[in-house]
């Protein structure tokens, strides 16, 4: 048995959620099984609309024992009492500034680092995690090969945790788990059908359990 084996945990990303479905889908998803955190994405909303969405979602996420992480909007994160901030765009200076201002009080992570060199540079700023993938880019059933390669490389050599983006199918979390990433993110796979969000989270956790059993055998 590999004693270093880590059971990945699920991260939800709200990108495809409509305002009308947000509460029902999120409650169902959080009731479906273990969720480490939820990344709340503006997904084109203006500041006021995003504020309303965050005010709705953050309390229920926190009540479920997950971390509520706001994408890019530090003022919104402060107003709603979020647990963290996710910095997009691969901007190392912006990531470093956010870490300086808000860590360790808030979780700070980032995405958009497309090369190994960029990822290592970002890692030197000591965020809480790096995210491999792009919000809203889970367009294929399978996880993007480049994201898997980056996560596997990172998990093998760097202690800093990473999140890898899975695909549009919930079954893709199995392949993502093989990278050794501490966290696997899903978005469309859970929220495309709000009525099935809980079942999708349950399925993801079952696949993680199967992965652990197969690796331990």
Topology (SSEs and partners):
Elements (H helix, E strand, L loop, with lengths): L8 E5 L8 H10 L5 E4 L6 H17 L3 E5 L2 H7 L3 E4 L4 H11 L4 E5 L4 H8 L5 E4 L12 H13 L4 E4 L6 H6 L5 E4 L1 H4 L5 H20 L1
Parallel strand pairs: 1-2, 1-8, 2-3, 3-4, 4-5, 5-6, 6-7, 7-8
Helix pairs in contact: 1-2, 1-9, 2-3
Structure description:
This protein is α/β, with parallel strands linked by helices and 217 residues long. It has one domain: Alpha-Beta Barrel (TIM Barrel), CATH 3.20.20.70. It has nine helices and eight strands. An eight-stranded parallel beta barrel has the order 1-2-3-4-5-6-7-8, surrounded by six helices. Helix 2 links the parallel strand 2 and strand 3. It is globular and about 50 Å long. The N and C termini lie close together (7 Å). The model has no long low-confidence stretch (mean pLDDT 96).
Q: Report the CATH topology name.
A: TIM Barrel
- How far the N terminus sits from the C terminus, by CA atoms, comes to 7 Å
- Mean pLDDT, to the nearest integer, reads 96
Gross CATH architecture: Alpha-Beta Barrel
Q: Show unreliable segments.
A: none
Main beta-sheet strand count, sense and barrel state? 8 strands, parallel, barrel
CATH H-level name... which superfamily?
Answer: Aldolase class I
